[in-house]
Amino acid sequence: MGCCSSSFLSETHPEKDHKKTHQQQPPRSPSGSAVLDPATGVPSFCEFSFSDLKTATNNFSSDNIVSESGEKAPNLVYKGRLQNRRWIAVKKFTKMAWPDPKQFAEEAWGVGKLRHKKLANLIGYCCDGDERLLVAEYMPNDTLAKHLFHWENQTIEWAMRLRVALYIAEALDYCSSEGRPLYHDLNAYRVLFDEDGDPRLSCFGLMKNSRDGKSYSTNLAYTPPEYLRNGRFTPESVIYSFGTVLLDLLSGKHIPPSRAIDMIKGKNIILLMDSHLEGNFSTEEATLVVGHASQCLQYEPRERPSTKDLVTTLAPLQTKPDVRKFNLHHIF
After folding, report:
1. Which of 34, 93, 125, 178 could disulfide-pair with 108, CB 3.0 to 4.6 Å?
2. CATH 1.25.40.10 fits 7-137, yes or no
3. φ, ψ (nearest 5 deg) of residue 4
4. 0.85 cut: is pTM over it?
């Protein structure tokens, strides 16, 4: 089947005008392929058959698993290759995580409409029997977590860390402006590096892990306090999680926010900084980023900045546009 129009989408997105309905459905394309959008260069969103994704991932081989936590992850991510040679990332949900195929298709369709150069964009989905899968652009140069916490050749230089902070803030601001402000479980594993070594935000976090699933799967020490209090997940909760990513960028470690806040209050900013930077950073810039992190981690959601505020404050720190990329190693 490859990519094709979905009956689920036509049912879940009724339009009074037939022409409008036709335009809103995913385009058709050859089996096991994907049609490029000439405006963005990104494949148009479509529905894949399970057989196509099975072929692309070598029957979902364990050798193709690219999710950081490997086979222990509840929803595995595989790398795959379509018939047109394009590499893809396929997120395979546990059986019946989304029992209603219409609901899954509708959620995927909402995310699939987003297109931004700072996102690892969603290019398709699969509802085939009990199978529920998402298909995204494949980012070949690992995650922020890998480069910060488990690097082998070189750590990320300061200018690149500033770029990561801005690019992710821009991606979140774009999603918010497009009516998708909720990003689930934002952390260093959700930040990916593309073929040029630039950071992108994974589109997978724009959908929950299941219809009724929790929004956070990481350690509770990093979970927004309001979510722990009442289970409410809001755009301000995303800002809190962004603050934890800023801490990761500053320290090169996954430090619980409560401990980091104590260090910030104690004016121990230098102690907070990643020793692997060997002092190669601007103390003034680091102080500003620490201040942004502190604002994002405010206990009261209303006291946290907006995504637009973050973009405005982080943009002036980008003083090295030709920042050297770390050693790239494509996993092809």
Report:
1. 125
2. no
3. -155, 170
4. yes
